[in-house]
Amino acid sequence: MSSQIVSLDSFVASPSPVRGCASSSCGSSARPADVDPDVWEKIKDHPCYSEEAHHYFARMHVAVAPACNIQCNYCNRKYDCSNESRPGVVSERLTPEEAVRKVVAVAAAVPELSVLGIAGPGDALANWKQTRATFDAVRKVIPDVKFCLSTNGLALPDYADEIAGMAIDHVTITINAVDPEIGAKIYPWIFFDHKRRTGLEAATIFLERQMRGLEMLVARGILVKINSVMIPGINDAHLPKVNRAVRQRGAFLHNIMPLISDPAHGTHFGLTGQRGPTPAELKTLQDQLDGGAKLMRHCRQCRADAIGLLGEDRGQEFTLDRLPEFATCDPAPRQAYRAFVAAERGDRGAARADALRSVSAVADDVLLVAVATKGGARINEHFGHTREFQIYEAGPKGITLVGHRKVDAYCMGGFGEDATLGPTIAALDGIDTVLCAKIGDCPRDALAEAGITVTDAHAYDYIETAIGKLYAERFGRSAAVA
Amino acid sequence: MAMSINADDCTACGACESECPSKAIRFQGAVYVIDPKKCTECQGAADAPQCDEVCPSGAIAKAA
Fold first, then answer.
1. Is A304 found in the same domain as A229?
2. Distance, in angstroms, between B36 CA and closest chain A CA?
3. Is A127 exposed, middle or buried (0-12, 13-18, 19+ CB in 10 A)?
4. Residue range of the domain that includes A167
5. Do residue B11 and residue A126 have CB atoms under 8 angstroms apart?
6. Among A292, A322, A352, which residue terminates a domain?
7. On chain B, which terminus has fewer CB atoms closer than 10 Å, C or N?
């Protein structure tokens, strides 16, 4: 087996082949030039805060926070299905004691685990007793996992001090508007100071407290990510203003997410026919905001009980009835995995720098590439097993991850079905080339007919290395020379 | 004089339990229930029944 081949699964099974430097400072070559070293220490293992980290590290959410203190027009908590993937949805609510059992079991089975988050399914701060009890108890048994929480921000000014005191490094606030007139179209009511408030009064109180909460967290050295739901016709044209407002107040990352509004979910927006943005509309807005507060492009809008790398959800493997009676809290596999990543990152950082040089010399040509990967920043997934392609853009700005596209796995148990290839081709609209570890002749020919090239020639390469080569081949430049 | 929860509409989020000033609400089986002996409809404690104010699914009404 070539040393290029990195399977996370095989690593989990045998952590012994770790080689290279195991020191925590090693791998610093992976640190992006525009990120301060102190900040890098906080984000380098957090898959949501670092695009780089999301190739390697896993998060888990525990659903200990069912209550909420506001209503959003895109949320309906009644509908709940384990096949659904969206925020606010959860299959199993946990007490803090059950949550700790679950975290211990997952930590024992998933060495990639680096972050424990509380993101609902309601609001982490509207259930502060449970949120706090969960973090305090986990800290005692697994001190090496980072904590993170997600909130609508209404209660944030009340808890900012406590959050800072608990060493929670990362907080996400969902901010969809800064003008109350627009906020009132998104939030029908809030419950604040013992009263349900509606309309402009609600939005005015709410948005003011969100901004104050953001300022308080930044002042306490906490990294804040802002999530914004893009709602065409309501706040899409307003989001650049939100971007400026949160950037001025020191937000670390801004994540623009598309509205999910299937009528079957029973949300207000779903039932009134409010549509979500097309992928092209979303990308246009993200491109417009690039260069502002750093933009997050790798969000998967995961469930409030998701477990695993961002593109996957292993939550169903860890339901309460499947948890082992006893699980150990041994940190050794996680430490070994982190040492492996540190070494791998140094190597990948050098490869990435080479690849970037190969595209930066060419002027205007842009290449959109879909990648089949199961982690490790390498092309290591079969085409037919892929449920999500990572989309990279190569051009004058370099090679960047610009999003992902979900598909139904084409290949089920070894038999590809023509029926599922149509939607896959539609999902790959506009993509020039697909890079995967392996693909059969039949689907390759079908995609070629649709104008999409699929190749497994770069199997197990680093993603950026392969795209750099592809770019050089396509536009007639040699990567080595450029 | 008491509020009650319609079990069909309750999503068991528990928002009402933590807002109740009379500690009249508790989790029972799959949903929350209000003890009519303890419920005061928040008279003297708040302008309106807190459980009804915070409930996201309209599951709470005056007991028949």
1. yes
2. 21
3. buried
4. 57-322
5. no
6. A322
7. C
The pLDDT value recorded for residue A324 is 79
pLDDT tens column, A302-343:
776 777 777 777 888 888 888 877 677 788 888 888 888 888
Nearest to B56 among A68, A129, A195 (CB): A68
Task: Look at chain A and report how many structural domains it folds into.
Answer: 2
Instruction: Give the Cα separation of A391 and A169 in Å (integer).
Output: 29
Cα-based distances in Å from A361 to A34, A252, A254, A471, A472 = 21, 30, 29, 11, 10
**Inter-chain contact A77–B18, Cβ cutoff 8 Å?**
no
Q: In chain A, what is the greatest distance between 2 CA atoms, to the nearest angstrom?
A: 68
Four-point Cα dihedral A419, A375, A82, A97, nearest 10: 170
Q: Which of B15, B46, B48 sits opposite A67 (nearest CB)?
A: B15
> Which CATH number covers residue A465?
3.30.420.130
Structure tokens at A107: 């930590």
pTM: 0.78
A191 CB neighbours in chain B (<8 A) are 15, 19, 53-54
CA angle A384, A11, A135 (to 5 degrees): 100
Give the mean pLDDT of B38-60. 94
Nearest chain B alpha carbon to A79: B11
Q: Could B13 and A68 be called an inter-chain contact, meaning their C-beta atoms sit closer than 8 Å? A: yes
Q: Provide the CATH number for the domain around residue A137.
A: 3.20.20.70
Q: Is residue A37, in this structure, part of any structural domain at all?
A: no
Residues A86-127 pLDDT 10s: 555 556 778 899 999 999 988 888 888 888 999 878 899 999
A-to-B residue pairs, Cβ atoms closer than 8 angstroms: 45
Q: What is the pLDDT of residues A35-73, one digit of tens each?
A: 788 888 888 887 777 777 788 888 888 889 989 999 999
Name the interface residues of A facing B (CB cutoff 8 Å): 66-69, 71, 77-78, 93, 122, 126-127, 129, 191, 194-196
Nearest Cβ partner of A66 from B12, B48, B54? Answer: B12
Q: Hey, what CATH topology would domain B3-62 get?
A: Alpha-Beta Plaits (3.30.70)
Q: Are residues A82 and A197 in the same domain?
A: yes
